Every structure is written in C-alpha cells, then in structure tokens.
Amino acid sequence: MSSLVALGIIALTFVLLLLLARRLPLGGKRPLTGHHILKQQIARSIESGRPIQVNLGRASLIAQHAATSIAALHILDSLVRSSSHNAPPNTNVGDATLLPAAATSLRRSSRSGLPHFLASEATPLAYASGMLNEASHTHPTALVTVGHHGTELALINYAGQQQEIAHLIGSDSPEGLAIAMTTTTQPFMGEDLLAVSAYLDEQPAQIASLYLQDIARWLLAVILLLSALYRLIT
Amino acid sequence: MIIKRAIPLALAIATGVLTLVALLLQLPALYTLLLGWATFLATIALLLGVLNLLSVHLWRIAYPGDTSRFYSVVLVLGMVLVFAAALTDASHLTANSLALVFSWVQAPLEAAFAALLPLVMLFSGFQLLKRQRTLTAVVFLITAVFTLLYHLLSSNLVSQPPLQGVLLQLGDWLENVVALAGMRGLLIGIALGTITLSIRILAGWERPYQP
Lengths: 234, 211
Hints:
- The structure holds two protein chains of two kinds.
- Chain A is an alpha/beta fold.
- Chain A is about 60% helix and about 10% strand.
- In chain A, helix 5 runs parallel beside helix 6.
- The two termini of chain A are about 30 Å apart.
- By secondary structure, chain B is mostly helical.
- Chain B is about 80% helix and about 0% strand.
- Chain B is built from six helices and no strands.
- The chains are: A alpha/beta, B mainly alpha.
- At the A-B interface, helix 1, helix 3, helix 4, strand 3 and helix 5 of A face helix 1, helix 2, helix 4 and helix 6 of B.
C-alpha cells in the first residue's frame, strides 16, 4: 500500500513539474552566489590560459551520495564547455566510478586530458594528500572542490591558501561544510550544489523543480514548527 | 544524431524507472540483477582507477618536469609493497601483513589528522576574522573556542573551575540543540535536493550520461 502511495506521489510530482514548467518565468530563481563565483573563475582561467583544478569528491555513482557526484560532474561538464578552446580542467576523482564519467566530459575539450584517480572512497586522507600533490604539480588558477567532501577539506583548503588561489567549495557533508564556511565566502551548501545544474542549464523543467523544492521545504518547515508547538502545548 | 541521443536517453529512463518500481513494489529478483550489474561495473572501474593512478605516477617518474619525483616514487613503491603483502598473505607465506600495514600506517595517520582538525578549524576561524569581520565570523570563533573549552572541562583533565556546571549545560545545549538543529536542517535540504535531482534525471530533463 505504502509503495503505491510513493509511486502516486512521484507521478503527481511529475505532473506538477510539467504544469509549473509551462507557467514559470525563467529569470525568477533565488540568487546563488557561488554560481557567479564559478563563472568568474572560468573567465579568469580563460584569460590566464592556466587550467582550473576540479576535485569531484569521494562519492560513488552507485551509493548513497550519488546525487552529489552527479551534480559535481555537471559542473565539470560546464567548465569543459566554457573552456573548450583553452586548457581543460585538471580533474581529480576520489572514487573510481567517477573516472569514466569525468573522462567522457573531458573528451569534449579540444585539448583532451584524462582525469586522475587519487584514492578510493574509504581513504579521505589519501585523497586529500593526492590533491595537495596535484595542486603543487599543476599550479591551477583556482580550485573547484565539489562533490562529497568531509573533513579532508581542511587539508585541501591548505593547498588553496599555499598557492593564494580562489577556492570554490560545494559539499553535502555537514563536517565538510563547517570547514567550507571558514574558508570560502560563498560555498555551495548541500542543496545549493544539487541545484547548480539547473542554474547552469536554465531549462524550464529544471527551474520548475527548484520552485517545487522550495515549496516542499516551506511546507516541511511549517509542519515541523506546528508539531513542535503541539508538543509544547500538550 | 537523434538515434545517438534517443537510445541512451530511453535506456537510462527505462533502467531508472525499472529500478524504482522494483524497489518500491519489492521485486528482489529485478533489483538484485540491476544492482548486481552496477556493482560489477564499479569493480571494473576501481581496477581502471588503480591502473590510472599507477600510469600517472610512472609517467611523472619518467618525465618529472620542474617538480620533484619523490612523492611519485613513494606512491609506486607503496603500491608495489601493499600488492606484495596481499600476495604473500593469499599464498600463506605471511599472516595478516596487509592488516598490519593498515593498522601501523593508515590508521595512525588518519587518527592524527582527526586530532589536528579542531586546531585547524580554530586557526581557520582566526583567518576568517582577519579577512572579513562579519557577525558570522565572530560567532564561529566564539563557538569554536567555547566548544574546545567545553570538551576539555568534560574530559576531567583539568581541575574543576567555578561555574563548571553552567558551562557544561551550555555546551550540551549548543551541541545537542543548536548544532544538531542546523545539521538536521542541512540534511533535510539535501534530501529534498536529491529527490528533485532524481526526478529530473528519471524524466530525462537532466542527462549526466550524455554530456
């Protein structure tokens, strides 16, 4: 019974999204500052002729944090598209399932490059150390660290500080975000990272899904507040 | 061109919908088969990843450019040693040598890093305050200092100062109410974002498999 209810909710969401996509204006999204910083870094990379270093995180495409990795891959794809006549981003992955996907994105660049596999999912310290080594080896214009990153962000950030380059961070890990807040001005906080693809592509259905997500968030917040009030009174 | 785009799209949507339906309607034969394929492909990807790592560092040893080849040599030697340890374990020439490598090298390094983290955070807090004197930066720094003190007090390593009970209560409240509420808020947002992204992929509005 509950399975049928879940399927019904998913079907209803599809219908709602289709209806919203036809009616919504394109420019009405809430601002996402990290998105502008990403565009600035792309422009800086094109001007300087030096690549950006993209770190795609440690989440497998077949495990719990797959959505974060998909969003990170979308950012990589956008960076490759923007710098198609320039040096492609130096790409590092912390999980092997991201390797073929990142290689497919990088193949679009006129000067194709290969992503580097740094360590497996279970060894964050090895992943961060590999990334420090890569940054000192390639001297990038900026670091874009998006995907599932935890406390190893403290070490990765050290690479950015050492080379005095901008560092854009996006993660879905609360520990990683705590570190990101102390190091960058506008990190992609969890759901922001998952919404970046919609901001980059601006398809009506994608924007509609963000509106629906905002509505669902407000509904949940009201339900949580009302239930807390109810518990307080009774 | 249309076929080149339509076939991967149709395959991806069909696989996604089939897996979702199999999981929701409890059809273990179907979802075990699909997830089995995915796990097998992930294992092959791991093998490719290890070969990628080895080839990159062998290349750097051969053509170091203007950087040191030291780390690459250490990495390749480490890979060879761990592989040899696994082989000798498998052929019963040694016992638990692979576990020894992990418990003597990997685990202490990870633990040392974890212990260093609060200090790194505190240092980052000071840096943040130097860069931008905002309310967030001040609140972060005060909270970081207070949390370190709170953990020192609750560990009984220092003599009991006056007002210890009040400080511990405040620390408990900060950890279990303020920090936990923030973390739950983040996780709820991530869950909603994951659901909407999944729906976009299932509907074919977003195609990570088709750059």
